[in-house]
Structures are given as C-alpha cells and as structure tokens.
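Database export, one record per block. Field names are fixed; values are copied verbatim from the stored entry.
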Amino acid sequence: MKNNQATNLVSWDDHLDIKYGKVGTPSREKYEEDFESFKIGVLIQEARKLQNLTQEELAVKCGTTKNYISRIENNASDIRLSTLMRIIREGLGGHLKLSLEL
C-alpha cells in the first residue's frame, strides 16, 4: 500500500482495494459496474445542461418521460442500450462510442 507518512494519504487504487477488494473480486466488480452506471447518468446530465435543456425538454426530444431522465441522471434506473442510444442521438444530437476491454 502506498501511504504518504507525512499526510497519511492513501492512493485511490489502494483505497478501492481496502474498501471493495482487489480487482477481480466480486465486490470490486460490483463497484466497477455501479460506477460505470453512475458515470452514464452524470454524462447525460452534463450534456443536457450544456445544451440548456431541462429534463422535460430532453424527454420530449427522445420520446421518454422527465421521470425516466431524472432516474437515469440520479443512477436510480437501469437503462437499455437502445434507449441510451436514442437519448444521445435524438435528445442530445450526439453519438455513442463504446469500448470493450478484455
């Protein structure tokens, strides 16, 4: 563990290892999954605000509800890939780019 003795700081990776277990453990995998879901909501919210759209306006543009947009932004709802693509394409005028790590 990397620990700065003078300030008692712990690296972020070490913090995650302590709190959620090493990479590859079930608890760490769950954390990583949840974090990716959280990031999607934050990215949608930031893009919406950059375009000066309300949740209601975004919902109308992509054919969903304000409540659903709110749940996505607040990480309270799983989102289907097709719905995510529609929100980004029709609602925000963007393109979704995915990557796969093996």
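Remark 1: The beta strands are 3-4, 9-10.
Remark 2: The CA atoms of residues 50 and 97 lie 19 Å apart.
End of record.
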